[in-house]
Amino acid sequence: MIKLEDVTKSYRNGKETMDVLKNINLEIRQGDFVAIMGPSGSGKSTLMNIIGCLDRPTSGAYYFEGKDISSLDDQELAKIRNKKIGFVFQQFHLLPRLSALKNVELPMIYAGIGKKQRDELAKQALIKVGLGDRIQHMPNELSGGQKQRVAIARAIVNNPKLILADEPTGALDTKTSEAIMEQFTMLNKEGTTIIVVTHEHEVAQFAKRTIVVRDGEILQEDLGRGS
Amino acid sequence: MIKLEDVTKSYRNGKETMDVLKNINLEIRQGDFVAIMGPSGSGKSTLMNIIGCLDRPTSGAYYFEGKDISSLDDQELAKIRNKKIGFVFQQFHLLPRLSALKNVELPMIYAGIGKKQRDELAKQALIKVGLGDRIQHMPNELSGGQKQRVAIARAIVNNPKLILADEPTGALDTKTSEAIMEQFTMLNKEGTTIIVVTHEHEVAQFAKRTIVVRDGEILQEDLGRGS
Ligand SMILES: Nc1ncnc2c1ncn2[C@@H]1O[C@H](COP(=O)(O)OP(=O)(O)OP(=O)(O)O)[C@@H](O)[C@H]1O
Ligand SMILES: Nc1ncnc2c1ncn2[C@@H]1O[C@H](COP(=O)(O)OP(=O)(O)OP(=O)(O)O)[C@@H](O)[C@H]1O
Ligand SMILES: [Mg+2]
Ligand SMILES: [Mg+2]
């Protein structure tokens, strides 16, 4: 489903060039459940943004479902993102002037789903993440962990083929974290491909394989638990 | 240094009233190192905002260094915050158009410190949190954990009497987290009072006492390791 071939990502800052991802080779199949770990600043979010078609490599190739994404224009990339990918951002990116419910409805508006059904599905997604009693709250009336859970609900509500979750439990206590990871496990059992960036081993345990990133390179793969 | 007496905090949403903090009684001495744990949405950040003079209780009294803060106007509260308190926010709140260095300099500008000295102290603080090579980067050129560390550097640079850190290691890998908590331990040994909200037990271990919050109440105190 996902194939990165010699992918690099660099930023230029005046005369300096910063190589953030260096020769990444990675293959992820439909139905995989992958955890990505690594030090702060090692390139995990940058890697997730490329996988999620939010960013393009500086060099190398990225094939999503067999299509070379460098051959697609921005509109086609946006279409893939809306239809196939649910993204939980490290900084949530909720729209501040929309309630939790309306934030979760957004991906369904793009997918052309009718109002009545959107309302119902958004409500269900918020209940799944434990926010059934916060549906009408605005983001600034929510705690850090509640905002994170709205971002998670928004990512899963459209039933996407691929979920990319960048530190989805960073702001959550242990009990709430486990509940979220159990939701992801259920979705994975139903066939959703899941990639989770995390710095917590207890969270990585839920995945079937763990990839370690350091200084922009994939350091090792832990296939210990089998695929 | 800090005394909360029957503090409550409620929000009104049309007809509904939400009691977020209920009868909080808490005393923290100069030189204490306290961890606050509890489920997402339980009131930890709300409690920190009241302790940090960023918010006022709905009822009850808050004494900071013996002064009843309800007797102080907003300007006096701002003065206390700038001179005595360093705050690491759960959502960082960096100014997006200032570099890491300039973000860290902000508290010193308010304190009237000269440019040459500000530059040097800000640089030192960023080196302490492992960002010596990111000094000129803008927030959108930094990873999640790097932004968090800029927020930490900004909180410690003015050598405040009280540091309030709301999930300061939420976006950091284990190794970087430990380095940050060791910085806090050193500051505490030099006399700084530190209160850390965290959902990770490994982080709470660095504190001398742990307070558990649930549904807006202080559930229990763990004085197991002595004060
Ligand atoms: N303006 C508001 N109106 C209504 N409710 C609010 C408002 N601000 C916060 N709340 C509620 O107050 C409760 C406590 O929020 P707080 O941010 O203190 O939680 P927290 O313990 O820090 O959670 P987390 O661990 O998720 O950061 C939450 O349930 C939140 O929905
Ligand atoms: N626009 C940019 N210009 C220069 N450097 C950048 C830019 N954007 C990101 N970086 C650098 O890229 C590196 C990787 O960033 P990334 O966000 O992928 O790290 P990360 O592994 O997700 O870290 P964290 O665990 O802290 O979230 C960082 O060192 C960061 O400073
Ligand atoms: Mg990141
Ligand atoms: Mg909070």
N-to-C span of chain A? 15 Å
DSSP, total strands of chain A: 10
- Overall shape of chain A: globular
Percent of residues in helices of chain A comes to 25-40%
Tell me the strand order in the biggest sheet of chain A.
6-7-8-3-9-10
Could you give a short account of the major beta sheet of chain A? 6 strands, mixed
Roughly what fraction of the amino acids of chain A lie in strands?
25-35%
| Multimeric organization | homodimer
Listing every helix as H and every strand as E from the N terminus to the C terminus, the arrangement of chain A reads EEEHEEHEHHHEHEHEE
Overall pLDDT confidence of chain A? 94
Uncertain regions spanning at least 5 consecutive residues of chain A:
none
Helix tally of chain A equals: 7
Structural class of chain A: alpha/beta
User: What are the distinct ligands in this entry?
Assistant: adenosine-5'-triphosphate, magnesium ion
What report would you give on this structure?
The structure is a homodimer of 227-residue chains. The first copy, chain A, is α/β, with parallel strands linked by helices. Helix content of chain A is 34%, strand content 28%. Chain A has seven helices and ten strands. Chain A has helices at residues 44-51, 74-84, 100-110, 115-128, 144-156, 174-189, 201-204; strands at 2-13, 16-28, 33-37, 59-64, 67-68, 85-88, 162-166, 193-197, 209-214, 217-222. In chain A, the strands form two sheets. The first copy, chain A, has a six-stranded mixed sheet with strand order 6-7-8-3-9-10, sandwiched between helices. A four-stranded antiparallel sheet of chain A has the order 2-1-4-5, covered by helices on one side. In chain A, helix 3 (100-110) runs parallel beside helix 5 (144-156). The radius of gyration of chain A is 17 Å and the shape is globular. Chain A binds chain B through residues 11, 13, 37-41, 44-45, 90-91, 134, 141-146, 148-149, 166-167, 170-177, 199-200, and chain B through 11, 13, 37-41, 44-45, 90-91, 134, 141-146, 148-149, 166-167, 170-177, 199-200. The complex binds adenosine-5'-triphosphate (ATP) (2 copies) and magnesium ion (2 copies). One adenosine-5'-triphosphate sits between chains A (11, 13, 18, 20, 38, 40-46, 90) and B (134, 137, 141-146, 171). One magnesium ion is lined by residues 44-45, 90, 166 of chain B.
